[in-house]
Design a protein that fits this description.
This protein is an alpha/beta fold. 39% of the residues lie in helices and 14% in strands. It is built from twelve helices and eleven strands. It has a seven-stranded mixed β-sheet with strand order 1-7-6-5-4-2-3, with helices on both faces. A four-stranded antiparallel β-sheet has the order 8-9-11-10. Helix 10 runs parallel beside helix 12. The protein is globular. Bound molecules: pyridoxal-5'-phosphate. Pyridoxal-5'-phosphate binds next to helix 4. Pyridoxal-5'-phosphate (PLP) binds next to helix 4.
Length: 396
Amino acid sequence: MTNIIDQVSLGAIVQVRDRLLEQTARGRKVLRLESGDPSFDIPIHVREAMEKALRDGLTHYTASTGIQPLREAITRKVTGENGLTVASPDSVVVTNGGMHGLYILFRALLDPGDEVILPDPMWTEIGENIRLASGIPVPVRLPPEAGYQYNPLEIESAVTDRTRAIFVNTPHNPTGAVADRITLEAIAAIAEKHNLLLVSDEAYEHVIFDDEKHTSLGSIPAAQGRTVSVFSMSKTYAMSGLRLGYLVLNDALTLDRIKKLVRCTINGVNSVTQYGAAAALNAPQDATRAMAREYQLRRDILFDALEESPYVKAFKPHGAFYMWARIQPDWPGYDGKADDWSMTNYLIDQSAIGSAPGSAFGPAGAGHIRFAFSCSTAQVREAASLLPGALQAAKK
Ligand SMILES: Cc1ncc(COP(=O)(O)O)c(C=O)c1O
């Protein structure tokens, strides 16, 4: 029998990053549009709270599910802002980033062979974490013609007697689509009808543009009591390297399992990061709003550049910091290949621009390319100035 871990990839973005680092070693300046890591510094009050925690010697083991002041701050935030019903701070579990939260969550929810419906395309790690928990990811295509909104009819027709949960991510990685409330209500109704759990990944809840509003799935009446909400401090506060996320759920058995998994995996997140996270949540949210405005500016710069470029048709995202573009059929390919890797490789070699090949995000991602605009505005501007010419130069 093969080990399930052998079915998990080492990651397309890691491969792109390695190729970009090779270019750097050759003295080339590279533009890091391959991965979603915020360019910003953490807010000053977060840094100060972490420095204070260090000075005060708060460097010991903490409660494995998180320090009480942080779980209280999270409880206030998710009830006040997200509209979740939370029994008490005991319903909050602090994790080593959203990624670790997803890993332990699927381990806690799934028995071997349980199915989880998820969008296609989707950030690769979701399907992989489902597989690592011996579950089966069941992709349901997000229709481009409907602006990548979830299709409740298709979701319902994917339900089988092995379906355990429906996974929803909004704002969505990789398309940047923001699910509207009516669609989320329809998904919650399906979960209620078939007695399914809902997993709501809200890592990008604050990276949102124009007049769009983020709706938390767990706030919808039909979703209450059956939703596990996954949040991250990485994107909202640019705390990606500090590694802090949190799960919010009320189901006693799942909570119990998750607590055991936290104890046996990380036994608590880095104490200093936890004090920084509490400060982030308790302070005014101006820094987060300023970051969202800057991401929107970058989105517009990049979108205009792709509109001027041959071979790609970009979707203008309403949230998250990714530009998802369909590669056009006249793309001449590169090194004799016409798949999406060929455009990613071409842009690295031609202009040292990073991107992620769409096929890394699931079957519906084939023939697409994703550009992240979380790197600095200067890098986004430079990439935008190079992209039309670089793609033009591919003309045979
Ligand atoms: C959709 C989605 N969920 C969750 C995460 C988890 O982020 P982190 O582990 O940094 O909290 C990411 C990170 O890119 C993401 O794209």
